[in-house]
TrEMBL record:
Pfam family, one: Sigma54_DBD
Keywords, sorted A to Z: DNA-binding, DNA-directed RNA polymerase, Nucleotidyltransferase, Sigma factor, Transcription, Transcription regulation, Transferase
Gene Ontology cellular-component terms listed: DNA-directed RNA polymerase complex
Transcription recorded as keyword: yes
Organism: Faecalibacillus faecis
Residue intervals passing through the bilayer: none
Domain RNA polymerase sigma factor 54 DNA-binding: 254-404
GO BP term, pick one: DNA-templated transcription initiation
Classification lineage: Bacteria, Bacillati, Bacillota, Erysipelotrichia, Erysipelotrichales
Chain ranges of the RNA polymerase sigma factor 54 core-binding domain: 64-242
Entry superkingdom: Bacteria
Family stated for the protein in its record: Belongs to the sigma-54 factor family.
GO MF term set: DNA binding; DNA-binding transcription activator activity; nucleotidyltransferase activity; sigma factor activity
Protein name: RNA polymerase sigma-54 factor
Amino acid sequence: MKQKMQYIQTLKQTLKLNQKLLKSLDFLTDNIDDINKVIQDILETNPFLELKSSKNYDNQQFIESISNKRSLKDDLYYQLYAYTHPYNEDVMTYLIESLDDSGFLSYPLDQYMSDLHIDQDMLDAHLDILRSFEPNGVGASDAIDSILIQLKNNNKTKTYTLFRDYQDVILTQNYSLIKQTTGLNKEEIDHLFYEIRSCNPFPCNMYNTSHDDYVSPDILIEVENSDITITPINQPALMVNDTLYEKVKNDENMKAYFNEAHFLMENMTKRNQTVLIVANALVNIQSGYFLYDDELYPCTLSQLASETGFHESTISRTLNNKYYSFNGEAYPLKKLLVSQTASGDSSDSIKKAIVELVDDEDKEHPLSDNQILKKLEELELHCSRRVIVKYRQQLNIPSSTKRKVLKKVG
């Protein structure tokens, strides 16, 4: 009798723990590895939930521990949930999900307004919220913009204003020109440089220090005879033991476990269906990329929402931390979501052209950003010089002065 009471008490404590885990789990946003950890915990305590074998699921991988290092977006969402002032959740989710690996905005500002159907004031208000979060400088358009945000947040008002208004002159590091343009003396210019250099142009790179973390793709993309096949993989094949429930259904504790098992099954099914629908729409749009290795086609969240019937915020959450496997490699699913420049050209095509131009340039006389811009125009690819700088930084291509190779003498 004593043992029975103790057994029931243990069940209640574990059930509370699992309910808490399920409540905190965002089935759509979390990746399959995080979800698998929760499932493994519940499998150990829930008598009605069972794991079947599946040819597209690695049971050993399910048991192995996965790195639980928090990502940049995880930290941003934690800060957002703690934010006490009013905000539009859909807008903030879109902004956070659009950040690239360096924590920079992936799209032009006018595209955000178009996709979200908001005006400039609304966008600026939500960008201010994002840029108030840590790490200082997140949500910038590029490295220079990140420095400006940090200066502003750190109340370096004078340096912020000078760097904002005389950015091109200051970046030359030509004291005479800076003095002539700004009226500052040498001591003031030294202090200006000191405050600028105290900022980190890539403050979010701390989240990208390790590239060895194993990721589990949600889908496998295969091409055979000009046909593209999409197959769900790494999905645990779960089942609920209804026969066992018939024997203990009068026990309230057992009924709670049974409901928990069905709740998990229903949400996993809904998650997997949503991921598959979104992935299918993306792959259909980017079919040329998979079939013929063409450049990625411009595609926005708004377009995907129209194709699938889901809201933009649902699309954003679905693409978060999801990977696809293709030709033996794993890639982020959101990489198939390609922005376009204000002129309508694909950012992917512009980036590829920049790489080719730099690879073929005269190393003793490397192309300046303006020269790259002119050559792109000759290729009928149009964007601004600011976009060239941004893409060059994203591609880890140094400036022309740092790419220059001195001619050997003798």
